[in-house]
């Protein structure tokens, strides 16, 4: 196995997650599938009035025994239930900066090498075209879960969530309530998973000699979706030696038992990598943590739309959270008499100024204001468009006009957000089966409303 790329994470003491997993972790830096990931169990997070040590539970006793047999040495973290985040890992002692919190031996990691050495390995080796690393991992998970008590990975499989809260698992009518472009991304992700499943059916059929039951029942779409979400939300980054029997897609995902019980906080920092000398995947704190507090990692500087799409939760007061402004929206706020609108938009598109336009906790982004300043240029000032993109002030009138448009866009977004929240509230009352999915949508829109209100105050003060 090759060395893993170094990943910056975080460890903290506080954090509030909505829709986070009931059974621990999310993903760390997961380059496979679409982006990176995290997950939770069914429904919303477990509500606890205080932290509760869960190391006595049978599934965790068995997991610890299984890990110990594979040379894992306990570093003082125990599973516990926390208010706000649900199940996570608690430190039994105070943690100092630079201290090792987890050192997971390679023998504990579930990689494509694990898959190739398993009973499905020979079938993967002879299948053409070669399956992708992601498909190999998903196939192994479905197979091992079906094997049940006979699986060598049962102790790990038993603590995995039985379902996930990512939009790829939602009902279409709930996905329709997501803001753009998140809705589009969620629909594309669902189509990606469905296409992968359909295109892999012949491969699944080839595995029939391994099972007494029909593979059509074992490798159902729901089973495959569960496996895909497990990898997409829980895997850590680990660059493996390329397997000749797998496709040339990047083989950089590994499932890391116990380590993946760690929850996410955007406010903390750790360092993580595979240590070639020790043969372990190691995480060290970059800050202190008090005794009996929850230990967190950070899955990356992701906004809430990304966290919800990839991990199935929303992080309250996320400093990276923002509200995207589609580039095409800007044209709606310009005077219809402006004959240079199309030329201005063309310039913005050519130079990448119709992407990553946002409102944040600190107001409209520089890119958004810059795009608006160019769009608001008077005809006689249009030749100065290059100076605008360099950040120069063209005129007081241009500054005032662009801020006025930003204020109007923000105001309209606030009203649209409130309208969606009213619709979500009505749907929650009428459909109890979708209440958990709708609660996540509501949490996302509520955070976006707070961001827009903060931005509105800042723009009004300029």
Automatic annotation (TrEMBL):
<dbReference type="InterPro" id="IPR050600">
    <property type="entry name" value="SETD3_SETD6_MTase"/>
</dbReference>
<dbReference type="InterPro" id="IPR001214">
    <property type="entry name" value="SET_dom"/>
</dbReference>
<dbReference type="InterPro" id="IPR046341">
    <property type="entry name" value="SET_dom_sf"/>
</dbReference>
<keyword id="KW-0732">Signal</keyword>
<keyword id="KW-0949">S-adenosyl-L-methionine</keyword>
<dbReference type="InterPro" id="IPR044429">
    <property type="entry name" value="SETD4_SET"/>
</dbReference>
<keyword id="KW-0808">Transferase</keyword>
<protein>
    <submittedName>
        <fullName>SET domain-containing protein 4 isoform X1</fullName>
    </submittedName>
</protein>
<keyword id="KW-0489">Methyltransferase</keyword>
<dbReference type="Pfam" id="PF09273">
    <property type="entry name" value="Rubis-subs-bind"/>
</dbReference>
<dbReference type="InterPro" id="IPR016852">
    <property type="entry name" value="SET_MeTrfase"/>
</dbReference>
<dbReference type="InterPro" id="IPR015353">
    <property type="entry name" value="Rubisco_LSMT_subst-bd"/>
</dbReference>
<dbReference type="Pfam" id="PF00856">
    <property type="entry name" value="SET"/>
</dbReference>
<feature type="domain" description="SET">
    <location>
        <begin position="75"/>
        <end position="300"/>
    </location>
</feature>
<feature type="signal peptide">
    <location>
        <begin position="1"/>
        <end position="24"/>
    </location>
</feature>
<dbReference type="InterPro" id="IPR036464">
    <property type="entry name" value="Rubisco_LSMT_subst-bd_sf"/>
</dbReference>
């Amino acid at each position: 196995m090759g060395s893993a790329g170094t990943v910056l994470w975080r460890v903290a003491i506080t954090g509030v997650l909505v829709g986070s997993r009931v059974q621990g972790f999310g993903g760390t830096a997961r380059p496979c599938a679409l982006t990176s990931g995290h997950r939770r169990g069914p429904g919303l997070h477990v509500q606890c009035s205080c932290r509760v040590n869960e190391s006595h539970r049978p599934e965790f006793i068995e997991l610890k025994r299984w890990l110990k047999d594979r040379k894992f040495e306990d570093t003082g973290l125990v599973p516990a239930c926390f208010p706000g985040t649900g199940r996570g890992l608690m430190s039994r002692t105070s943690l100092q900066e630079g201290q090792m919190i987890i050192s997971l031996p390679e023998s504990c990691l579930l990689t494509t090498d694990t898959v190739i050495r398993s009973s499905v390995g020979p079938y993967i080796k002879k299948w053409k075209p070669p399956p992708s690393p992601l498909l190999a991992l998903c196939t192994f998970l479905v197979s091992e879960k079906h094997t049940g008590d006979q699986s060598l990975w049962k102790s790990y499989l038993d603590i995995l969530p039985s379902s996930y809260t990512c939009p790829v698992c939602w009902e279409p009518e709930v996905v329709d309530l997501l803001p753009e472009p998140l809705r589009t991304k969620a629909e594309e992700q669902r189509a990606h998973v469905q296409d992968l499943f359909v295109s892999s059916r012949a491969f699944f059929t080839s595995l029939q000699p391994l099972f007494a039951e029909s593979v059509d029942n074992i490798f159902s779409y729901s089973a495959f979706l569960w496996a895909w979400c497990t990898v997409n939300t829980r895997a850590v980054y680990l660059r493996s030696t390329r397997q000749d029997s797998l496709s040339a897609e990047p083989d950089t995902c590994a499932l890391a038992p116990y380590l993946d019980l760690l929850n996410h906080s955007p406010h903390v920092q750790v360092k993580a990598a595979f240590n070639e000398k020790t043969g372990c995947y190691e995480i060290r704190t970059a800050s202190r943590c008090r005794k009996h507090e929850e230990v967190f990692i950070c899955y990356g500087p992701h906004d809430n739309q990304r966290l919800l799409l990839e991990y199935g939760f929303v992080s309250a007061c996320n400093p990276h959270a923002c509200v995207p402004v589609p580039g095409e929206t800007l044209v709606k706020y310009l005077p219809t008499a402006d004959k240079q609108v199309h030329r201005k938009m063309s310039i913005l598109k050519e130079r990448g100024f119709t992407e990553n336009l946002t409102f944040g906790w600190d107001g409209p982004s520089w890119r958004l204001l810059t795009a608006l300043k160019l769009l608001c240029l008077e005809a006689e000032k249009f030749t100065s468009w290059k100076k605008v993109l360099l950040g120069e002030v063209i005129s007081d009138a241009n500054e005032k006009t662009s801020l006025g448009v930003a204020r109007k866009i923000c105001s309209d977004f606030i009203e649209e957000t409130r309208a969606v929240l009213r619709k979500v509230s009505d749907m929650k009352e009428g459909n109890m089966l979708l209440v958990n999915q709708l609660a996540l949508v509501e949490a996302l829109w509520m955070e976006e409303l707070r961001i827009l209100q903060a931005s509105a105050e800042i723009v009004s003060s300029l």
